[in-house]
Predict the structure.
Amino acid sequence: MIALKLVPHLVAFFGMATVALRGATRRGMLAGTALAGFLVGTGFAVVSTGSVSGQFSFSLVRALLALSFLLFCAVSFTALYQSLGGSLPVGWLERLSSRPVSRSCALFLASAAAGAVAGCRLGPAVPSWVWGALAAAAAVLVLAAVLLESRLPAGLSTSRAGYLALTVAFLLFSASWSTRLDLFAPLTMKVMKFTHDFVHQFFESMLIPDHLFIHSYLWGYIGLLFGKEVGFWGGLIIWFTPVVMVFLAIGLERLPSVAHLRQGAQRRRVLAEAIRTRRMRLVLPGLALVLLASAVYRSLYPSVEYWDPKPVPVTANAGGEIFLPRKGEIDLMDGKLHKYVFERGGKTARFFVLLTPSGKLTVDLDACAICKPDGYGQAEGTVLCYYCKTLIPLETVGKPGGCNPVPVPFTEQDDGIHLSGVTLINTWSGTVQSTTRTTEKGK
Amino acid sequence: MAVATIETSGLTRSYGEICALKPIDLSVPEGEWLSVMGHSGSGKSTLMNLVGGLDRPTAGALVVGGQDLSTLTEDGLARFRREYVGIIFQQHHLVPYLSALENVMLSQYFHSVPDEAEARHALERVGLGHRLKNRPGELSGGEQQRVCIARAIINSPKLLLGDEPTGNLDHKSTLMVMELLKELRAEERFTVVMVTHNEEVAAWGDRTIYLTDGVLVREERTRS
Ligand SMILES: Nc1ncnc2c1ncn2[C@@H]1O[C@H](COP(=O)(O)OP(=O)(O)OP(=O)(O)O)[C@@H](O)[C@H]1O
Ligand SMILES: [Mg+2]
């Protein structure tokens, strides 16, 4: 099960390592660097998800991925600009990046990111032998990458931007298998929010002062800008623009000058060879395109396993107190979401108990303060609001606000959890009434 | 002493029982114009096909332009044909629905990339600058054969093979084609091997060999 979960990440790492060795001189050293980076990355993920905070390591890895994407954007833009004949004062940067040591550093960072993605995916509650197996698998894959790379046709190379495209694509592909590391979904949200804010700022300030002719139907178009579609399509454009720029940059690369060749046939032969080489240089960026597309698909249709427990009915004792034993029929400490339903005086309330990654139990309503009370499911390090599909990291469950489940006061003792039935019902009624009212008002 | 463009020893080609080419030893120096004569069925075309890389020998050594053709792979042989040989047949083998210009450009395409200006120039050199857009059906036999020459030389072959290129032409057209080939050879310095039934045509060459039933029976130097 765990092994299966890791397959895409290992494949991505394998691909990345293979790409990194292309056209390199000291392959052995680079292979070692890739392996070391991967292990450091996984190690980091183990330590930080286990000790500091899972939330922190996820954010850090995501930030790293976002940075690599931005770097990729910058590089692809530069590449396109240069092949259009523009010149940028980046000569020193190019010299720096073509140094073997820079290459090693970049590979180390990329492998570390790949390792951290795999590590985050596993989470802290994993026996140490799994980490060992992961390390061994990575070592084998690096060896396989060395072997595969030496067997690839020599013509299968690409521009520096192309190699970066493929490396970043492998990383994003790997990340897309974890709903919490996926970069595409947050990108669409950002685009949506940006458009929203922009439209507000721009149109409201500029156009609201009534204009007789445009006013009415312009709003029809502006309405389009607020839809979910905008985020998706805008995100898609941003997602694919850099790799398309790499394509264009390679496609526009100058063919060698053949003016000095006297014989027509020889001129044409040189040109044909150059065109063939240039076409081959598009293959690897093409693979990057496929990887990015599959990352989008993953993001839209994540294959997470949902834990969707049925609420277990509970009753209160004579003192009106609900008691849930720590280790009864149900093991509260297993890290899974445990749902209960309580009824009193014709009113029912659903709530759940969950062990957060920090090792504390939390009791919350199976509802939040803003959505219809459709409840929550659990998925890979998060709980998911069934109504608005928001993923809430386990670390923040138990804290109020937004679409977080509403916390319920309780006392934790050695034997288990005690909470007041009355408080529970009242919290539920308060929450659900207010959300129902808001929803109706919103319509 | 010029380098040998074609060097065969014990070259043999048999079709089952029929031995079309008995072991032949032949050496053609670079830049020579060799005429090949012999009665019908004597193995002239068979020899041409072998030398042009269109066919493989059953036995013997065959080295053309420094390459041992019997050891080349199919791909290698195709590249050899593409880059080393130009061939003109009696039947012109032009693509009927393409214009003269396009027929020449097709040959460029298979070689590397098409270059219209160069193709036009080649047709102008064979005196067809005014018939670029005509299809083979709209050209006379002599004109068609000149398109074939343009097509054969467009990729600057080192070896030009002709299998009775003037077989279908009248005396005047034949003279025109031969004159043209002579001019082109002076400029491009390719080696020519040309099969013919016509003594007069054979006399355009430096040397003539005679085949009978697959055997090289006689050779003679022509002086011109
Ligand atoms: N593909 C084949 N299969 C069987 N026999 C063949 C094949 N090609 C040629 N031959 C035979 O090989 C012999 C030589 O043929 P080739 O075509 O070389 O003659 P040629 O000298 O070119 O004759 P022509 O002047 O009529 O063109 C002939 O007897 C012919 O029948
Ligand atoms: Mg013949």
User: Anything to note?
Assistant: DSSP finds 13 helices and eleven strands in chain A. The radius of gyration of chain A is 27 Å. Residues 438-443 of chain A have pLDDT under 50 and may be disordered.
